[in-house]
Every structure is written in structure tokens, then in C-alpha cells.
Design brief:
Shape: elongated
Radius of gyration: 31 Å
Strand content: 15-25%
Order of helices and strands: HEEHHEEEHEEHHHEHEHEE
Distance between the termini: 34 Å
CATH superfamily of the largest domain: P-loop containing nucleotide triphosphate hydrolases
Largest sheet: 6 strands, mixed
Length: 329
Amino acid sequence: MVVSHDVALLNRMDNTAELYNHRLTSFGGPYGEWCAHLDNELAAAAQAVSAAEQTVRVAKRQRAAAETKLARRNRKAQRDYDNKRAPKIVMNNWAASAEVSAGKLRTELDDKAVAAEGALQVAEARLRNDEHIRVDLPDPTVPATRRLAELPRSRGPLVVMGPERIAIVGANGIGKTRLLDALLAGEAGRLLTDRVGYLPQRIDSLDEQASVLDNVATPGGDAALVRTRLARFLLRGDSVYRPVATLSGGERFRVALARLLLAEPPPQLIVLDEPTNNLDLASVDQLVDALAAYRGAVIVVSHDDDFLARLDLDRTLSMRRPGVLDEAG
């Protein structure tokens, strides 16, 4: 039995069990097949919700139409009563019969509306609230000819040009993190811009006692604009005033990511060191969403092949010996 967020490993399993909303469900196949099954389930659920919503609308229209019809009938009965169209006892019998009929119709339509609302609630319960980051980030203004960094390479420095996306891969312990630290410290390679954002493996640079907003907003900046942008990172409403220490791991990660990408001025180059190590699969999806909206250069160290495959990389460099990079073969 394996608990993991490693997609490649999960795809080697015979069965997949998911813990969601305090329930454990099992599927007889690997992760990829389970994802396809879940997509089909959610598509069917969305279709069921659409059909149930239509049924609710029809029931409400029928109820309104019935009330209009009954009101017209009541007005006609009152005119007949006022004009003495029939003996009083006969008209009273008509009124009693009409009242019974109206009550029965209302009950039937109310039951139908309640049943429709119940079916809608059941259908909506099958949907999921797995939200995605959709962000409109500040433009870091990185033209294609802009030189941003030089990375050490066996056959001469590799220049990071414009909004390139570069992955660095290699065995654990070979020195990938040390290379990033040396690059940022000016001890290996060379940074050609001072607008660099860094997301280390451990998110420990946040002010635990300060609020989400205070961690992300810059002094004198537009707090309302920052709040609007934080909402796109799924940090909404009063949650922006909560101390970081009270947040979940996924929320803390989104705060760190928002602080990195919403910096003023925005970074022209961001450096990510094993960003998916401690993330669940939903948070990995959110990271991919955010990076898709970023228009600067990216250098990312990762051993997560599935994550790297989703980043639209320009090149992949491999570290086979400490401190030296080569084109991955």
C-alpha cells in the first residue's frame, strides 16, 4: 500500500483509493485510469445538474402558471357570485369544490417542486469544488533578446534568454540545490537581472504572525488590487486577514506563490527548487496554472517528470557531476 503524490509511481499501482470529503473510495485501476473515470463521472454529474436545474425551472413555471389560472378562476367566481348567476347554495358548492381542487393542484405542484429541488441537491452533491488558479499577473516585461542569467555548462556558459523555461534534473544529492544557492549568491554562473524571485523547497520565509495580505502587499501599494489578485489564488474574503500561522499547507503555499508572482516590480526570472515535493496533486495543478500565466523566465529543479511535462519547457539540463550542467539526452 502506497500513499504518494508521485503520478509516475501511482500509475504503476493495480488499484487506486482516494480520500475525498472524509470518504475513501476505491477504483480497480492505476491513477491515470482513475483520472479518466473521474472525468467521466464529473461530466455526468454536470449533465445531471443541468437537467435537474431545468426540471426545477419547469416546476416553478408550472406553479406560477397554476396560481395565475386559479386567480382568474377566483375572480370569475366572485363576479358570478356578485351577479347572482346561480342560487347561493349552488355557488357555495361550486366554491367549495373549486377550493378542494385548487388545494389538490397546489399540493401536487408543491410536491413536484420539492422533488425537483431534492433531485438538484443530489446532483450537485456529485460535483466537486476543486478550484483552479486563474490569474492575470503583472507583466515582467521580458523581451526575447533580454539576457537574464548564465548557467555553468561543460561546454561554456548557457545564457537564459527572454521568457525561457529551463528544467534542471539529476540524481538526488548531486548538487542541484547547491547550484541554485550558488547562482543566487553570485558564486556560480551569473545573474544578469536583479529582479529574481526564488521559491525554495521549504516555505519558511513567510511572517507567521502577519496576515496573508501583509505578507503579499508592498508598503504603499494598492491593497484593494492585491486582494483582488489574491482571490485568483483562491485566497478570498476575510481569509486575507488571517495570520499565516493559522493556514493549511496548501494555503501557505499559495501565499508564498502569490508573494513571488505579485511582487512589485514583478520578477523577470523565477527560480523554483523542487516545488512539488510537499504539494498534494491539487496544489500541483494550481502551481501549473499560475506558471502558465507568468510571462517571465523560469528555472526549475525537479524530479517530477509529470510536472515538468506540463510546463512547456524550452530545454532540459542534466547534472551528471556536481556543479556542471549538460543538455539532457
